[in-house]
Amino acid sequence: MKILFLTYHGFDPGSGISKKMLAQIKGLRQGGHEVHVCSYDYDSKRNLCRFIDDRPIKNYGHGALAAIRQRMSYGCIADYCIDHEIEMVYSRNYQNATPWLVSLFRRLRKNGIHCLQEIPTYPYDGEFRGYPWDKKIGLYVDKMFRNALARQMDAVVTFSEAKQIFGQRTINISNGVDFDAIPLHRYDGSGGDDIHVIAVAEVHTWHGFDRFIHGMGKYYEECKNKKLKKVYFHIVGDVWDPEMNGSSRAPGFATYINKYGIEPYVIFHGKLFGEGLDRVFNQCVFAVGSLGRHRSGITHIKTLKNREYASRGIPFIYSECDSDFDHQPYVLKAPADESPIDIQQVLDFIDNHHFNPSEIRRSVEHLSWKVQMGRVVEEEGVRRKE
User: Fold this and answer.
1) How far apart are the C-alpha atoms of 275 and 330, rounded to whole Å?
2) How far apart are CA 10 and CA 206, in angstroms?
3) What are φ and ψ of residue 179, in 5° steps?
4) What's the rounded mean pLDDT across residues 102-122?
5) On the chain, which terminus has fewer CB atoms closer than 10 Å, C or N?
6) Which of 337, 278, 276 lies closest to 308, judged by CA?
7) Dihedral pair phi/psi, residue 251, rounded to 5°
């Protein structure tokens, strides 16, 4: 099948989202499909352009007007799809529904091209709670047109359990992993008797890492006069000011770090990838997934991070419902509330369980992107025959 993978921004080699999309594209190609990629980025002369693969198909020029034009001008995408006999367009939702985007997909459908929209997080309105109004303008516009956009789709691809989104049927899959890009966890023992824990994310309030830091503070406070294991929390990824210093949405990391005097035990690495990331992982024996999805009104979600931890072969904790992992022995479930994480419970879990990284990895072999994207194409193909 000839597929156009449509994204509304460019690719950043340090971005987890970009890595995920590239892995999805790779998974489709591994399934034998011809996949072309449409993105929006700068060319060598700093013009904002729409690209197909590495070739610009529309030059919007410079500055703010160029950014506005590209949100109203999608005809080049439809022309390309029609001229090159594209059979399916797979687009990734960017909370950017507009009348012009609705018109693009209406034209594609009229030309017999199947259209799928992936909504990576659903529902997503709660992610904007506490944001100032100017940060919500795009969401307000999206709310006005997202049902109309969904009507132009053949289906919405979701990692939730929802059977219908914005009035459209869903294709339910899991987030996948690219096993070629994720090495097996190899604990190096450099921590000695100390316990090192890792969390990797572009940090937002719904990750709830403040709950883990709060729990560390209480652990150190309660064990002041006892012999205790030292616990170190390594946070890998960008941490923005509201997450560090607090907002109306959640307490800041600094609030608990300063309150309990645990500065030496919470280590911020910033973005890491490749060997740098592997070194931190191999120092750690446990990982932290999302602990605050309830803050966005989400109860069921299949996050990419859980799958990446499992594919590395490291046990981890999270608080949402994830049917792929809720009953796995290498997972510790936290309550989906605002309570501090019980660090002693984490330590007991680590002490009482010894997991083989290869066995953990084998448990998620069915979650490769080749398998998950294959399910999307297969399900849509079955409906096409019907």
Assistant:
1) 25
2) 25
3) -65, -25
4) 95
5) C
6) 278
7) -65, 150
DSSP state of 237: B
Residues 242 and 252 sit within 8 Å (Cβ to Cβ): yes
pLDDT in tens, 23-56: 999 999 999 999 999 999 999 999 999 999 989 9
Predicted model pTM: 0.84
Q: Which residues contact 382 (CB under 8 A, 6 or more apart)?
A: none
CA angle 275, 333, 20 (to 5 degrees): 40
Q: Work out the end-to-end distance of the chain between its first and last CA atoms, rounded to an integer number of angstroms.
A: 18
The rounded distance, in Å, linking the Cα atoms of 109 and 115 is 7
CB 346 within 8 A of CB 317: yes
| Residue 143 burial by Cβ neighbours in a 10 Å radius (0-12, 13-18, 19+) | middle
The pLDDT value recorded for residue 384 is 57
3-class SS at 301? coil
Residue at 137: amino acid letter? I
- Looking at residue 381, its pLDDT comes to 65
